[in-house]
Amino acid sequence: MFSFFKSKPPAAEPATPDAQTEAVAPQPVEPRPGWAQRLKQGLAKTRDRLGGQLSSLFGVGRKIDAELFEELETILITADVGVDATQALLDTLQKQVRREGLTEASDLQAALKQALVDMLTPLQAPLDVTLHKPFILMLAGVNGAGKTTTIGKLAKLYQSQGLSVLLAAGDTFRAAAREQLQVWGARNNVTVVSQEKGDSAAVIFDAIQAARARGIDVVLADTAGRLPTQLHLMEEIKKVKRVIEKIAPGAPHEVLLVLDANTGQNAVTQVKAFDDALGVTGLVLTKLDGTAKGGAIAAIAQARLNPVRPIPVRYIGVGESVDDLRPFDAREFVEAVFSA
Fold first, then answer.
1. Based on C-alpha coordinates, what's the Rg of the chain?
2. What is the pLDDT of residues 75-105, one digit of tens each?
3. Distance, C-alpha 266 to centroid of its chain
4. pLDDT tens digits, residue range 178-206?
5. Mind spelling out the 3-state secondary structure of the chain?
6. Which of 21, 71, 145, 194 is 20 to 30 Å from 2 at the Cα level?
7. CA 126 to CA 54: how far, in whole Å?
8. How far apart are CA 257 and CA 262, in angstroms?
9. Average pLDDT, the chain
10. Quick one: pLDDT band at residue 11, thresholds 50, 70, 90?
11. What is the spatial distance between Cα 32 and Cα 38, in angstroms, rounded to a whole number?
12. Distance of CA 23 to the CA centre of its chain
């Protein structure tokens, strides 16, 4: 049986007439840092691993030589930038050194920052969820990548843009996932379509029907986590997509693959596997605040440099708060990694 979970905030307890109350001076509330500062804080571990070592490498007075490039290569690879992306960056820098006649190591820092921005910019493509109504987003990923939490944060983000949202609890394998999504639904005051037992495709089918009937703007469809090596589960998620296409031709309008930044280079393998199965249209990189492997985004960019259909990073997550998920901006990201 399907359920439409719509939570209401708990009613306030009535004041006790004979209770003695004391006037309490309001405590000053620390203003929450802006996104740029939160991004910088969230990327602290990556900055320590990458930016800190690079600052030492590019110290004043050091000359550009073969040894410097060898050290730079080591730093980039250990920061999970990846072999291919590292080689591409080194090639770009070496060409610039020859072209401009650079001799000081300090000149390379700005050059490397710009080379990284150029590499990551193709991944920068904000998602417009107003192109269809309802706009149907299907989320996929391995177990523990953060799909359900990402759905809750996306719901809040789209609501802040004045859009109505409905959540589909398509992870029918894990009861806690349904309950977790209902908590996010309660927090954001949005409806969650769920089913205690049964088929993920059926839940999402029902959610789309409900969204149409209610004039909902955005449907966020959760799916169960699975490893790319679990072939029967990869076949099942293909079926989920086919069901969505059947009820809404042209949908899902976005297939978001959620990646845990802690996986580092393994994220590249996940992108390829899920893209081959589903035709991934966007990526979400979560948990950047808990890892020093943020450089893996460069590996993703280099591995997916497809001029016909690059896969953009739609959002990045740098914290646990509901507003710690934002659209990816290449220059903003690189500046946060290199900032002091």
1. 23
2. 999 889 999 999 999 999 999 999 999 999 9
3. 15
4. 888 888 888 889 999 998 777 889 999 99
5. CEEEECCCCCCCCCCCCCCCCCCCCCCCCCCCCCHHHHHHHHCHHHHHHHHHHHHHHCCCCCECCHHHHHHHHHHHHHCCCCHHHHHHHHHHHHHHHHHHCCCECHHHHHHHHHHHHHHHHHHECCCCCCCCCCEEEEEECCCCCCHHHHHHHHHHHHHHCCCCEEEECCCCCCHHHHHHHHHHHHHHCCEEEEECCCCHHHHHHHHHHHHHHHCCCEEEECCCCCCCCCHHHHHHHHHHHHHHHHHCCCCCCEEEEEEEHHHCCHHHHHHHHHHHHHCCCEEEEECHHHCCCCCHHHHHHHHCCCCCCCCCEEEEECCCCCCCEEECCHHHHHHHHHCC
6. 145
7. 30
8. 15
9. 87
10. very low
11. 9
12. 45
Which amino acid is present at 200? S
pLDDT over threshold 60, residue 24 = no
Cβ atoms of 309 and 300 within 8 Å: the answer is: no
pTM: 0.87
**Residue 204 to residue 36: CA distance in whole angstroms:** 36
Could you tell me if 333 and 39 are in contact, meaning their C-beta atoms sit under 8 angstroms apart? yes
Q: Which two tokens stand for residue 163?
A: 């859009």
- What pLDDT, on a 0 to 100 scale, did the predictor assign at position 249? 94
- 250-297 tens-digit pLDDT: 999 999 999 999 998 889 999 999 999 999 999 999 999 988 889 999
Q: Which residues, 6 or more positions from 140, have their beta carbon under 8 angstroms from its beta carbon? A: 147, 223, 226, 237, 255, 256, 257, 258, 274, 278, 280
